[in-house]
Design brief:
The chain is an alpha/beta fold and 234 residues long. Helices cover 41% and strands 20% of the residues. The protein folds into two domains: 118 residues, Response regulator (Rossmann fold), CATH 3.40.50; 92 residues, Arc Repressor Mutant, subunit A. The protein has eight helices and twelve strands. The chain has a five-stranded parallel β-sheet with strand order 2-1-3-4-5, with helices on both faces. The chain has a four-stranded antiparallel β-sheet with strand order 6-7-8-9, with helices on one face.
Length: 234
Amino acid sequence: MKTILVVDDERHIVDLVRLYLEKEGYAVVTAADGQEALDRHARNDPDLVVLDLMLPKLDGFEVCREIRRRGDTPVLMLTARDDDIDAIVGLELGADDFVTKPFNPRALVARVKAILRRTDVTAKGGRPMQVGALRIDPRRREATVAGRDLGLRAREFDLLAALARDPGVVLTRDMLLEDVWGTDFPGETRTVDVHVGEVRRKLGADGPPIETVRGVGYRLVPPIREAVPPAATD
């Protein structure tokens, strides 16, 4: 049985999330502030943490930073503000995904399942992909640009790999949601936009650009091959 740590200072939210997670067969432990969250994390070694940002004593950012220092427990962040900045900061600190309040509890459970499913499955075989200076090794789950490790989170790696499989081809946000987050993910396409922004930042100027196709989606732009001059003739 998987154990989920739910951290929120709003009792009704904790009770609601607990109800839906337990209906799916998960064991649930809870915490109402940041310090209690770290204590429960150390004591219970949960398989995943559902973590609110706005907490007493220690906020969610500090808790996430400490969890990342301890290991690789997946973290699903909750934010009450419809603000990309919170999501971006959370992802930079190591959160695996985020949900904006108010949320549908079924959608939250779907994200929990998707994260756990991904972390449970060992890396499957696959040939390395090369797009310009970008190299992706699916077996090792490594992505580098000109030898520099990109340090991608799991979702970011899956997103970049999906784009790199068909460089130059436009993938819609819905296609990326299904490919990266799974068919049971009922979430918002804004999730894709935030993750694309993070991947772009990590690729930097040396990596192939991810182009936005307005109103459609994204594509990874392959490098333009330099024209080879014709061979000299006598």
